[in-house]
Amino acid sequence: MAVEVHEVVDWRFRQVSPKRRLGGWRGSFFMLGAACCGYLAFGGIFFNLVLYLIRVWGESPSTAANDLTNLLGTMFFTALIGAFLGDAYLGRLWTVLLFLLIYLLGCVLLGVAVTLQEHADVTKPLPNGLKTFLFAALYITAVGNGSYEPVLASLGGDQFETTGEKTTFFNWFFVFCNVGQLVALTFVTYFENNGQWALGFWISGGIVLISLPLYMVGAPFCRQFRPGGNPFLRISQVFVCALRKKARVSPRGNDLYEVQDGGGLSAIPGSRRLSHSKQFRWLDRAALATNDDEKANPWRVCTVTQVEEVKCLIRIAPFLIAGVLFNTIIAQLTTLFIEQGATMDGHIGHHFNIPPGSMQVFTVLTSVLFTPFYDYILVPLLRKRTGHEKGITTLQRMGWGIVISIIAMVVAAVVEKKRLNAARASPLIDVPFAVLPISIYWLVPQYVIVGISLVFAIVGQMDFFYTELSDGMRSVGISLPLVCRGLGSYASTLLVTITTHITTSGGKLGWIPRNLNRGHIDYFYWLLAVLMAVTLVFYLIAAHFYSYLRVAPAKEGVEEVELMRKGSS
Predict the structure, then answer these.
(1) CB of 370 within 8 A of CB of 362?
(2) Do 72 and 207 lie in a common domain?
(3) Residues 3-18, mean pLDDT to the nearest whole number
(4) What pTM does this model have?
(5) Would you state the pLDDT for residue 256?
(6) What is the pLDDT of residues 379-420, one digit of tens each?
(7) More confident of the two residues 233 and 260
(8) Which residues cross the membrane (predicted)?
(9) Domain check: are 146 and 263 in the same one?
């Protein structure tokens, strides 16, 4: 279990006396509430956005899908910005507050834009300036939402001392986030599917407004740590130092510079020393002390731990690529899956009709229910068979997530073929988004299977990137699954664009036309299944050659090299 080594301070960065107890569930409970509110607002804005852009602004399905995936890509990619600011400069508590305010600003501007659209003259085309204003508001909302989430999760983990307590918090964080999404899917999207778009977006903004005082009420009970410095600056220093000494022979482990600390701490605030690894030996030159070096100058010589930080990033790069490709599947939840559902009958009996956007409730419910099943039933069974503490390794867990995502795409392709057959047998085939004589509940299996894949892949990614980076990059590590999701959204946009360009050549309608009944989304799903199969092969090769991070024991360490070490020149 890692020992917390930062100096504990309160919400105003005042040192905390031993008699003053901060942290624990008192403060983190309010963070869970803020997370729930944030995800509720996220669902109310983004779950039905594709349908809003199609029905109100007249966009084609492919254009609307690309607009949404670009927004989601921006939102998840900015997670890295929030993590960076929280770790390096502002502190996590104040970083969360800053981006919650930006999130609220975006929601207010979005509500204004949609209200203006609803009061516009219906006899005239909607002005382009209004659409520009709408998308500006959406992007501000995306930046605020994406930046605060990983920092909030990190801050919540900071409230606890032991690994077990931290894990419990992260489990509840996952549950509360999904509860927020459930409320959005069953309540907010109801108004939006009835054409009350402004009301739905204003409700989302109101929920974010509620999250602010909820978060601030808990702030005095929270503890935090002083910012530990810029991790990207340390990475740059390693490459600069290695390039300065590129002509030198790769050094041996006992020739490398490392600070000594009886408790096993490194020169990086809050980080334990990392053991020297034999991979990427050319980077070791950065830690080679020479006659001209000054240990006080990190642009001349770096520590072994600093070099190993960079090696960690290089080692996890293949899994980041696999994570990006996996998230092209997740992007379909808020794009093509919804567009499919908009043409299908959502009635249960004569009175209840489930909106297409609310079908994601099956993914969310599956993730929430399958998580405790995995932890309390599946893991103990696997542990008896494998002897591994977690049942299977984190790499195996992520790999199974990829396998299950392939199954999801195969099922989606088969169901879409059935929907197309129903459309071709119906007189409504040439009426876009007309309700066809086929139940929307045929889509349930693909939503459920994607939910199971999330438990394996996304939670596995959080665990992997958190544990396989150094202590000084923990927030950055937690943000990487969201960055993968953002880049996956961009990849989905690119894939849809390329597919549409190729399949519409020669005047053809293409696979994803405005009228889906004349298209072939099933072919697109088969394409995704093949892409993920190739990703799985790539992933298995990378996992086979991967070396896990090793933290140096307290008594272990590379002996500090004297600047005038005999034999160095």
Answers:
(1) no
(2) yes
(3) 60
(4) 0.79
(5) 77
(6) 889 888 988 877 888 899 999 999 999 999 999 999 999 998
(7) 233
(8) 29-51, 71-90, 97-117, 129-148, 169-191, 197-217, 316-338, 358-377, 398-415, 435-459, 480-503, 523-546
(9) no
Q: Does some domain include residue 21? A: yes
488: helix, strand or coil = helix
User: How many CB atoms lie under 10 A from the CB of residue 253?
Assistant: 15
Residues 130, 3, single domain; the answer is yes
CATH number at residue 56: 1.20.1250.20
CA nearest 467: which of 539, 371, 569, 397? 397
More confident residue, 9 or 84: 84
Q: How many of the other CB atoms lie within 10 Å of CB of 311?
A: 21
Q: Is 282 helix (H, G, I), strand (E, B) or coil?
A: helix
Residue 139 is encoded by which pair of tokens?
């992007």
Q: Is 565 exposed, middle or buried (0-12, 13-18, 19+ CB in 10 A)?
A: middle
Residue 392: helix, strand or coil by DSSP? coil
Q: Is residue 281 part of a domain?
A: yes
How many other CB atoms sit within 10 Å of the CB of residue 252?
A: 11
Burial 177-200 (b: 16+ CB within 10 A, else e): bbbbbbbbbeebbbbbbeeebbbb
Residue 210 pLDDT grade (very low, low, confident, very high; cuts 50, 70, 90): very high
CB 118 within 8 A of CB 171: no
Same structural domain, 95 and 123: yes
Boundary residue ending a domain (276, 308, 340): 308
Tracing tokens 């852009």 back to the chain, one arrives at 53
Question: Cα(395)–Cα(374) distance, rounded to whole angstroms?
Answer: 16
pLDDT in tens, 344-358: 888 887 777 887 877
Cβ–Cβ < 8 Å for 107, 41: yes
Q: Which of 39, 90, 364 is nearest to 225 (CA)?
A: 90
Residue 18: predicted pLDDT: 59
Q: Is 7 a domain residue?
A: yes
Q: Are residues 76 and 218 in the same domain?
A: yes
Residues 166 and 241 in one domain: no
In a domain, 345, yes or no: no
Structural domain count of the chain: 2
Are both 125 and 183 inside the same structural domain?
yes
CA Rg value for the chain = 26
13 pLDDT band, cuts 50/70/90, is low
Alpha-carbon distance of 323 to 309, in angstroms, equals: 20
Cα 525 to Cα 520: distance, rounded to the nearest angstrom: 9
Which residue segment(s) compose the domain that 241 sits in? Answer: 231-308
Q: How many CB atoms lie within 10 A of CB 395?
A: 19
% of the chain at pLDDT higher than 70: 87
Q: Of 172, 197, 228, which residue sits at a domain end?
A: 228
Asked if residue 243 and residue 213 are part of one domain, the reply reads no
The answer to whether the beta carbons of residues 193 and 360 sit under 8 Å apart is no
Q: What distances in angstroms separate CA 249 from CA 60, 204, 291, 434, one per listed residue? A: 59, 60, 16, 70
**3-state class percentages of the chain: helix first, strand second, coil last, to nearest 5:** 70, 5, 30
The whole-chain average pLDDT of the chain stands at 82
Q: Would you state the structure tokens that stand for residue 339, as one six-digit string?
A: 């567009």
Angle at 457 between CA 375 and CA 168, to 5 degrees: 35
pLDDT confidence of residue 6: 45
Contact criterion met (CB below 8 Å) for 271 and 475 = no
Residue 22 makes CB contacts below 8 A (sequence gap 6+) with 8, 10, 16, 159, 221, 222, 223
Q: Tell me how far apart the alpha carbons of residues 219 and 213 are, in angstroms, rounded to a whole number.
A: 10
